[in-house]
């Protein structure tokens, strides 16, 4: 689906965005009939309230959208979107009440409210359409909305229709839409190209493992995005219980996120040389599945002892990160639904990230606040390196003890990047319950903040 603003039109309905604190002043400047109608309908300006004020013929004359209080807005995001979904059919033009510095974020929230995942069941489309507010970058906001829609759809699609070949198809369509090049290494060719851990994790599945490699842009700083593309994770021979396997269609959420971000970057025609690497696999069970206590040799030459086949994401990412690092790009960023420990630490709404680069941190944190895409910095705590070093190999893919699981996973990945600036995002990729602009289901995290910060990250 395509998310876009309504075309400007003379018959667009004027929309007044009204906070609880400003309602009284607004009413004092309205005709008596309008004031009476608003009061009779109990409109108070709370977040999520919407009201149409009719003219003498019963047609919409103007509309009101509650914007809540400062404290209420601090408890959530996309306050305008909460009202937008309750407005009747029509095109709406914001005429008052929306702060200029929030216009872009709130307009984006309105667009995202129109997202529907309707591949398998019809869904009622959003009825209220927004004319883009004055002063916003329309093309950019629409690119962000559609990049986010791509991420959501890829995550929401079940593994029956989103295996490694399907993820490759989506990547090819994205590359084709933007004139990017794409190369895909499949099956046993992974061994010939020295990508052994991607092959090992995915070899037990009927749908062959692969590495997807997209390139775009001929000038500017170099940026490589690496996304975990585990299209379904049974846990391998360390099989997950059913309760833990239920959401494993989203274990390719990192791949979905970087493809969505890549769309945003390419649609915005950012001055960057972009590379996207996605190891796409299924972690399945068969007679040739890899086993606990196996020792794998990575692309980088580091050996890895397998102490849990359910810690597979870091294995496929490791080979992709080593490949990325060989070109020494200005920045490598990995995104993955990697550990349950990250969810325990910060819950589903925050995107934990790891970086030792002060410029990266400063730029990202400022952008995250600006675009309402919350992130939380976690430490690359070097003293924990000993926890990922077993007796008989260079690295342990699943340290015992249960402490600092997201940190040890990040430290594991960092071992495979030695010549480039590196940041890692351990995202959840799922909205557990519906919220303004975010339907229950797959969701992007950290990508809008990265897009906003990218110039400052790459050209400090």
TrEMBL record:
Keywords: Aminopeptidase, Hydrolase, Manganese, Protease. Residues 308-315 form the Cytosol aminopeptidase domain. Pfam families: Peptidase_M17, Peptidase_M17_N_1. One of its GO terms (biological process) is proteolysis. The keyword Repeat does not apply. It comes from the Bacteria. GO terms for cellular component: cytoplasm. One of its GO terms (molecular function) is metalloaminopeptidase activity. The keyword tRNA-binding does not apply. Belongs to the peptidase M17 family. PANTHER family: LEUCINE AMINOPEPTIDASE-RELATED (PTHR11963), PEPTIDASE B (PTHR11963:SF20). This is Cytochrome C oxidase subunit II. It comes from Sulfitobacter donghicola DSW-25 = KCTC 12864 = JCM 14565.
């Amino acid at each position: 689906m395509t998310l876009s603003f309504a075309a400007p039109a003379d018959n667009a309905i004027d929309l007044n965005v009204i906070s609880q604190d400003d309602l009284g002043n607004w009413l004092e400047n309205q005709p008596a009939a309008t004031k009476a109608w608003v009061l009779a309908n109990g409109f108070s300006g709370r977040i999520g309230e919407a009201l149409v004020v009719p003219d003498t013929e019963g047609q919409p004359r103007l509309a009101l959208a509650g914007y809540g209080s400062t404290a209420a807005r601090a408890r959530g995001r996309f306050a305008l979107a909460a009202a937008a979904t309750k407005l009747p059919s029509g095109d709406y033009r914001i005429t008052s009440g929306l702060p200029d510095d929030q216009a872009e974020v709130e307009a984006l929230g309105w667009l995202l409210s129109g997202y529907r995942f309707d591949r398998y069941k019809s869904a009622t489309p959003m009825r209220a359409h927004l004319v883009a507010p004055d002063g916003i970058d329309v093309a950019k906001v629409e690119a962000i909305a559609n990049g986010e829609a791509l991420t959501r759809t890829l995550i929401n699609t079940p593994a029956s229709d989103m295996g490694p070949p399907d993820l490759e198809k989506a990547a090819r369509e994205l590359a084709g839409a933007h004139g990017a090049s794409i190369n895909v290494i499949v099956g046993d060719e992974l061994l010939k190209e020295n990508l052994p851990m991607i092959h090992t994790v995915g070899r037990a599945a009927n749908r062959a493992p692969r590495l997807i490699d997209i390139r775009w842009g001929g000038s500017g700083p170099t940026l490589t995005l690496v996304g975990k593309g585990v299209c379904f994770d049974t846990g391998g021979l360390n099989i997950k219980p059913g309760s833990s396997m239920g959401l494993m269609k989203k274990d390719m959420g990192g791949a979905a996120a970087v493809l969505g971000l890549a769309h945003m970057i390419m649609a915005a025609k950012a001055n960057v040389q972009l590379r996207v690497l996605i190891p796409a696999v299924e972690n399945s069970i068969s007679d040739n599945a890899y086993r606990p206590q196996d020792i794998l040799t990575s692309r980088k030459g580091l050996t890895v002892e397998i102490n849990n086949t359910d810690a597979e994401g870091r294995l496929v990412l490791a080979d992709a990160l080593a490949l990325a690092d060989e070109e020494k790009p200005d920045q490598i960023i990995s995104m993955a639904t990697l550990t349950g420990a990250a969810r325990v630490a910060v819950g589903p709404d925050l995107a934990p990230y790891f970086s030792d680069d002060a410029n990266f941190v400063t730029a990202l944190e400022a952008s995250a606040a600006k675009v309402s895409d919350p992130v939380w910095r976690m430490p690359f705590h070097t003293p924990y390196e000993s926890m990922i070093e077993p007796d008989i190999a260079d690295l342990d893919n699943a340290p015992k003890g249960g402490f600092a699981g997201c940190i040890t996973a990040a430290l594991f990945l960092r071992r495979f990047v030695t010549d480039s600036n590196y940041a890692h995002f351990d995202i959840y990729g799922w909205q557990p319950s519906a919220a303004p602009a975010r339907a229950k289901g797959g969701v992007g995290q950290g990508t809008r903040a990265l897009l906003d910060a990218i110039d400052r990250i790459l050209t400090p």
